[in-house]
Specification:
This protein has 15 helices and 21 strands. The protein is α/β, with parallel strands linked by helices and about 500 residues long. Strands 14-17-18-13-12-19-20 form a seven-stranded mixed sheet, with helices on both faces. The chain has a five-stranded parallel sheet with strand order 9-8-7-10-11, with helices on both faces.
């Protein structure tokens, strides 16, 4: 992507900052709004409609009416497929505009946003478009004279709650399989990054998605998200975000209609480097970006680096070299490698956790300073902490910032114990030249994704989901469809 093209898109008109309900863009019922502040320079981009319970009621009613009408839920799967391919076409046609819009909203470096946001969203819609006419029922092996049929039916009204770090990508991970299965969706974007999803909603309408099948309610989690989670006519919630919010969603479901709740809650992912790693330099470069890309604001970020003691010092030196050379700056500059921190609140949390780690005895090898490459914005140099002990807060709690905690280990068993020594289980990495060791580690590490001799990069064909306090259910792959489908048995006496 060329810099002059990015510069030309910086001042494009923003999408409608209203609620999408029943195919119509509307203000909040009580007229409330929220300011949208860009982390790039701290300026106010626009205001969002701040949906309340009345607005959520209207959105859910619209989704239910669309579902019950059958205009999408009973539409021939081949026809749903055509609409979803048109959505993907339009995302690709507007890729540059969507990428720049998202960066202005959440501060991700443009080089990453280009691929991870509209690029990923388009491929996700294409993948699930091809699934729409391949969701098949089953015939059970019944005795003679009896026919057992297993139908796969759409679940109904899906409440999708999406975070701010990759809103378009994660939004597509939830919207596309839900639509492929025939559901209606009420989408609640993060109040910190809603603009690209509002643009996606308009793309869906323009591509021919029937009115009411996709509704969008912007607003705060405490009000809008809670109303969606408690609504008695929402059949399931699909959420990506913090563990604290995940717990509140489970409680809201329990106190309302016992709707299904699928949670992807982040982690404290270990990245384990053995002394037989094939290429120390490559491992250091990839491991550094595995935590520092998007300023560490990645759910699967390899935030705990576990290094075999014989190579510990040499490997840490290489990580520090990489960290010190990364260009932190304006995320709309193609030369930038690390963009902005999403908010003042997140930057303060990063600094507080860094300070506490040092107070507990960790050593700051590099970085950690708050800087201002763009006046008014939120930026921080990537930090590397050494001497981190497993009981320290920095080794147990997710920072969601560019902070790497390094701990040495001596044996494979110790590496496994350290890797599994948190409440999380989302992702992990293993670097080794020993194939047997690689397979042993994959089996022994409790995580939903284990990278071997790389970190990051799994595509739409494989599932993403965690264990333990990293959540349940899966995004991506054919397995994501399971969340949005009900099984119905027909037992027929012939």
């Amino acid at each position: 992507m060329q810099q002059d093209r990015i510069d030309a898109l910086r001042h494009l008109a923003l999408p409608l900052q209203a609620l999408l309900i029943g195919g119509q863009w509307k203000p909040a019922a009580d007229g409330r709004t929220l300011d949208v502040t860009s982390p790039i320079d701290g300026t106010t981009l626009c205001t969002l409609a701040d949906a309340g319970a009345t607005d959520v009621d209207r959105a859910v009613a619209s989704a239910r009416a669309a579902f019950d009408s059958g205009r999408w839920s009973r539409l021939a799967p081949a026809e749903r497929k055509k609409v979803m391919h048109r959505i993907a076409d339009r995302i690709e046609a507007q890729q540059a505009e969507l990428a720049v819009l998202g960066v202005r909203d959440n501060g991700t470096e443009i080089s990453m946003a280009w691929r991870a946001e509209p690029g990923s969203a388009a491929s996700t819609f294409r993948f699930y478009a091809e699934c729409a006419d391949k969701i098949m029922g089953e015939i059970a092996p019944t005795p003679e004279g009896t026919l057992g049929l297993i139908h796969r039916e759409p679940a109904g009204v899906v409440g999708a709650i999406v975070p701010w770090n990759f809103p378009l990508m994660i939004g597509a991970w939830k919207i596309a399989p839900a639509l492929a299965a025939g559901n209606s969706v009420v989408l609640k974007p993060s109040e910190d990054a809603s603009l690209s999803l509002l643009a996606l909603a308009q793309i869906c309408l323009d591509a021919g998605l029937p009115e009411g099948v996709l509704n969008v309610v912007t607003g705060t989690g405490a009000t809008t998200g809670d109303a969606l989670a408690r609504h008695p006519d929402v059949d399931l919630i699909a959420f990506t975000g913090s563990g604290a919010t995940g717990r509140r969603l489970l409680q809201a479901a329990a106190e309302s209609n016992l709707k299904r709740v699928y949670l992807e809650l982040g982690g404290k992912s270990p990245n384990i480097v053995f002394d037989d790693v094939p290429d120390l330099e490559q491992a250091a470069k990839v491991s550094a970006m595995g935590i520092f890309r998007n300023s560490g604001q990645v759910c699967v970020a390899g935030s705990r680096l576990l290094v075999h003691r014989p190579i510990h010092d040499a490997f840490v030196d290489r990580i520090v070299q990489v960290a010190n050379t990364l260009r932190v700056g304006n995320p709309l500059d193609v030369r930038t490698e690390i963009g902005a921190i999403s908010s003042t609140r997140q930057l303060q949390r990063n600094q507080q956790m860094l300070a506490r780690a040092i107070d507990e005895g960790a050593r700051l090898a590099c970085g950690g300073e708050v800087i201002a490459p763009v006046p008014g914005g939120h930026y921080m140099r990537p930090a590397v902490l050494t001497g981190v002990q497993p009981q320290m807060q920095i080794a147990q709690q997710e920072v969601f910032g560019p902070v790497l905690a390094v701990t040495p280990f001596d044996t494979e068993d110790e590496a496994v114990a350290l890797a599994n020594g948190t409440v999380y289980g989302l992702a992990a990495g293993v670097w080794t030249g020993n194939l047997s060791r690689a397979h042993r580690m994959v089996r022994r590490i409790r995580a939903g994704v284990v990278h071997v001799n790389t970190y990051g990069g799994p595509d739409i064909t494989v599932p993403l989901g965690g264990v333990r306090q990293s959540g349940n259910g899966h995004d991506k792959s054919l397995h994501a469809l399971d969340k949005y489908i009900n099984l119905k048995t027909a037992w027929i006496q012939l």
